[in-house]
Amino acid sequence: MKRAKTLVKKLLPTSTLKSIRPVYHGLKGYIAAAINFFPAARLEIISVTGTKGKTTTSAYIGRLLNTYGLKTGYITTSVINLGKEEFLNPHKMTSIDSFEMHKYLAKMKRNGCKRAVIEMSSQGLEQNRHKGLFGFTAGVFLNIYPEHIEAHGNWEKYKHAKSILFRNIRKNGVFLANKDFAEYQYMWRETKPKLRSTIHKKLFSLTKDITIKNSNNLTKNLIYKKQNYPTNLISDFDIQNAYAASISIANILGKTTKKRNTILEKILVLLPELKTVPGRMEWVIKEGKNVYNEQKTPYKKNLSILVDYAHEPASMEFLLKTVKSWQKKSFDNTIHILSCDGVGRDDWKKPIMGKISRKYIDYTIFTTDNFEIGDKPQAIIDSLTAKITLSDKTFSEKKRSKAFQKALEIASKLKGKTLIVSTGVGSEQGLTHPSGTVKWDEREQWINAYRKFSR
Asked: Which of 37, 112, 50, 110 is nearest to 77 (CA)?
């Protein structure tokens, strides 16, 4: 079935596919909703969109609401919770198939959830994958960067696709937006004129409302109104996402300014409960200790390994800037495993990602992750290295597993503490290859690679 779909995609012109998808997915959404007795109509639906940070923010909203005592389900690119326990998203996409989504929503309702958090991508919205949800109780706008223009055609079409979420805010719903990005005004204008007077418009700033302070180790503290709130998070980006989640909850639950402030303070106190979302700034090995599954393995104390999903220039630069800041006091050497999708998909960003890696990291190993029939691994690597000068600190390995071995080989020859960072896959549970989906867990692959290397 999957091969047939891939073949159809390759045979049909792009313009034809773009016109068919909204009708196809919209119809599926309504049918899926009906089959499951319209679960979304019986839930408060909170939806988050943005170029970066929407997965983590969505998961944090769900986790914090549950910790606060309000049972909530959530569907994100990384993790899903149906009201009982969190598990990895097995679908390899943000806006999952409508039949699966409405089945999940029905399970949330049966499990006692009164609300659900759903991460929404611009492409999912454009394809009408939100149909059958019958609007959102709250819509959260985080940011927008020019990183998906190729998929939409131009900047205006990209903005328009994101704004679909806000055109579907329910009566008496909440519009939440990061005012650091002027485009929030466009999103607000796109809400339905007839409902706009009933929608609660709330703004926040991730650059002015809070400051971020380093703790004694790599974790960060959030400072709000001169009050220090400790966390177990390790990047400024995660702290910003945690605040975005907290302020969203306060505005969704609190009807008056006093109540909102009280709820926000109570939520911020819960931040130490938050852990990194799987595959986002996630430690596998930290200074020789296996922190992923805590199995005893003879790691060298001077080695650390971190995985992250970053597959866009802005997210990657944010990540690698953080890594660079650590290097001053925590690490002596850094190695980056860099990959990207096959040729023909967002080609503009690939040379930029290569340049970013070389700007912040000591050694870069170029490799592959997901690619399909007709893609040539070497062509993928060539696209990443197109605008850099190759040197004795750059390497290429077509197979990702060999790239891991190469990183460990380089690390074994370096003096001092070494950090290896692999990006592009995160917590995905498989890689798409011409032969089909190859089973792959980035964290487990790193542990297995080290065991083989240390024999």
From this structure: 50
CA trace torsion 71, 75, 81, 86 (10° rounding): -130
Residues 6+ positions from 397 with CB-CB distance below 8 Å: 365, 366, 367, 403, 406
The pLDDT score that the predictor gives to residue 6 is: 53
Q: Taking a C-beta distance cutoff of 8 angstroms, is the pair 400, 372 a contact?
A: no
Mean of per-residue pLDDT scores for the chain: 92
Q: Which residues contact 208 (CB under 8 A, 6 or more apart)?
A: 180
Band (4; pLDDT cuts 50, 70, 90): low
Q: What is the pLDDT of residues 104-130, one digit of tens each?
A: 999 999 999 999 999 999 999 999 999
243-269 burial, b if ≥16 CB within 10 A, otherwise e? bbbbbbbbbbbbeeeeebeebbeebbe
Q: Span 30-46, mean pLDDT?
A: 97
Candidates 319, 345, 351; CA nearest to 423 is: 319
Radius of gyration of the chain (CA): 22
- Tokens at residue 254, please? 């609190």
| 9-18, 298-307, 310-319: range with highest mean pLDDT | 310-319
**What domains does the chain contain, in order, with CATH numbers?**
25-273 (3.40.1190.10), 282-453 (3.90.190.20)
Find the helix or strand (DSSP H, E) in which 160 lies: helix 155-163
Residue 389: Cβ-neighbour burial (10 angstroms; 0-12, 13-18, 19+): exposed
pLDDT of residue 299: 64
Q: What's the token pair of residue 83?
A: 């009201």
